[in-house]
Amino acid sequence: MTKTINWPIIxxxxxxxxxxxxxxxxxxxxxxxxxxRIKALQKADYNLFKISSEKVxxxxxxxxxxxxxxxxxxxxMMLGDESYASAKSWERLEASVKNFTGKKExxxxxxxxxxxxxxAEILLQKNDVALSxxxxxxxxxxxxxxxxxxxxxxxxxxxxxxQSRLFKGDINIKKLQRLISKYRxxxxxxxxxxxxxxxxGQPASLKNxxxxxxxxxxxxxxxxxxxxxxxxxxxxxxxxxxxxxxNIKNIVRKxxxxxxxxxxxxxxxxxxxxxxxxxxxxHALATQLRELVVLYEGFITYGGMTGREMESIARGLEEVxxxxxxxxRLGQIIYFHNELAKIGIPLINxxxxxxxxxxxxxxxxHIPKNNxxxxxxxxxxxxxxxxxxxxxxxxxxxxSAKNELVRLAIPRRTYVQSxxxxxVEIFKKITANKKQYKGFKIIWQASSxxxxxxxxKPL
Length: 459
Ligand code: F0G
Known about the structure:
With about 450 residues, this protein is α/β, with parallel strands linked by helices. Helix 14 (about 375-385) crosses helix 16 (about 415-430). It has 16 helices and 14 strands. The protein has helices spanning about 35-45, 70-75, 90-100, 110-125, 135-145, 175-180, 205-220, 230-240, 250-255, 285-295, 305-320, 325-340, 360-365, 375-385, 395, 415-430, and strands at about 60, 105-110, 130, 150, 185-195, 220-225, 260-265, 275-280, 355-360, 385-390, 390, 405-410, 440-445, 455-459. The chain is globular and about 60 Å long. The strands form 4 sheets. The protein has a 7-stranded mixed β-sheet, sandwiched between helices. A 3-stranded antiparallel β-sheet has the order 9-12-11. Helix content is about 40%, strand content about 15%. The structure holds ligand F0G. Ligand F0G binds near residues 112, 136, 139 and 265.
């Protein structure tokens, strides 16, 4: 098998990092005209989740499950063992996850939210409390579905979105201590989401994660990590520590070592199109979790995944800690962020790990919060350029929204510089005529996770 090789850091005057790969398989992109895009928007009730991907030119809806696979992943997938129980592919995945996390008990699930559902069912009862630097929407929904109360306590550093401070993904330690005293009998666990997707994809510092872990231990609480972007988080720590702490893989393992329980959607830093796992050293807890995996997901050696998928994840977890990959990945996000900043787009600073976040309330000051300025920008980007993005604000999070954001998530290893430059051009076009874009009202919504299916009407 071809090994990935760490590239030397080549100093050039380029503001864009050279791709550490070349194109081999093509996925062509359609470019519809503006009239066709307006029609598509109307047909989808202005909800971008309902637009056919064929009608999207650049898809920044998510970085989840959208990574390009390497030739090594594809070739390993051909060896997928589809046996029901104890398949070879499971053994490879289990070994890879043990190596990646340093944990002894690995439980497969078909994606992140399956882990959330199973963990919630084992750990939570009605009125229990869980605290986090930021629950992702599906995490919150799964925990609340059990009747639990989920409280986000991000660091105060996030209160000023435009200010560039490192580790804005931290948990607020003072509030954490205060809330543990307040809800002493109800609190079940502390969850760190790495990176903090709900608050700009910002990383948490090793110090903050350690501190939160110690507080959990002292108070007899479980410390849980949502690890779906843990490698990107580790890259920020590595850079901040002037690269002193050895390689990225060591930092990833250090972070996992702080958690009693971790779960990961491998659709993100697993560099795979699906899958996930739960990891712990607690055998008794693992046994309980496995019982529910059999009930909801599949046998405990595949958890809803095919052998091929397990092969691609096993390899993806090795590729993702490669420095050449990470330098490009994070370099690409920094470039995109800087180009948008140069033309005056209000952004969350500094750029996070997997996306650039636009402050839509500032971008469209004429649209009030309850008319969803974020959704107005999302639809404008599609209308003018066929770009698909996602609102993370009052539409997605309703009352718990702290900001009106639009996330431009960058799929891994998928787009190149010209795609990003094209998006910057579309932003220029929208900026030149902001007032023509109007807000929205909801005409239908589901009882939870409304943003996926709601119908909207322009004002
Ligand atoms: N946790 C975080 C922090 C996430 O970002 C996601 C998914 C999940 C859990 C759930 O994982 O999708 O495999 O069930 N985030 C995607 C996104 C959907 O677009 O940010 P999943």
